[in-house]
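Appendix B. Raw example, untouched.
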Amino acid sequence: MKNYLIFTDSTADLPMEYFQLPMLKIIPLSFMIDGKQYIDGDLDTKEFYDKLRAGGTSTTSQLNPEQYLSIIEPHVRDGKDILVIAFSSGLSGTANSMRIALEELQEQYPERKIFGVDSLCASLGEGLLVHLAVEAYNAGKSIAENFQMLEDTKLKICHWFTVEDLHHLRRGGRLSGFSAFIGSVLKVKPVLHLNDEGKLIPRKKTIGRKKSIEKLFEQMEKTIINPEEQVIFISHGDCLDDANYLKNLILEKYKVKDVVINGIGTVIGSHSGPGTLALFYLGASR
């Protein structure tokens, strides 16, 4: 009998149906925009992105150890083992908060099995890792087997992004102000990926939005393994038409199991901005 729960945070940007799964618990992060604080999911994403387009600035807060403890400890006290999948330590301190909280729980409940995974993933890349954990759970894998699968797999989850507006990358320190200004004038669209340290790294530049989307697909062509066995994930910052264009490029060439599209939530979207498009799949390496 499986006696464990899987926890992750809202930065996984998972579709709503995952929130209904009995073995999965999703912990929301918080953000502040226009001087008001929200929990991820409280503000409609269309309204959120419209605020950003109008010049609003959103800031986010990482989970702290006390928040993890308050949410997870009752389940441990109730006799459940725990597997936590956290947002990349290369982008947030949330994974370190998880580690501190789980160490305290393990000391308090030494009889329980408690595992934490620094996903080194973001958005639906983290979501894809959670999806695989749920599949392993449903296949009858033990918590230890599931944890080992996640550790063996996380650096094979490829993350490729492009953005519409360079302002948010500049604000996050990914581009200088001058580069962002010149890029905007010339309609330069960067293509970025998450490296093995879970950090967002600019890799390529294209001219024009359509070219940048096609570049995401080209990267997938170069690095995907066993596509017929995969569910591909695409996340977007209020640009569904672009997500569907990318989906069609994939389906024209590959007979994948499925292509899942979901919006980028308010916490990740605070840093990536409207018009972000991201592609996630399994490769031999990132």
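End of appendix B.
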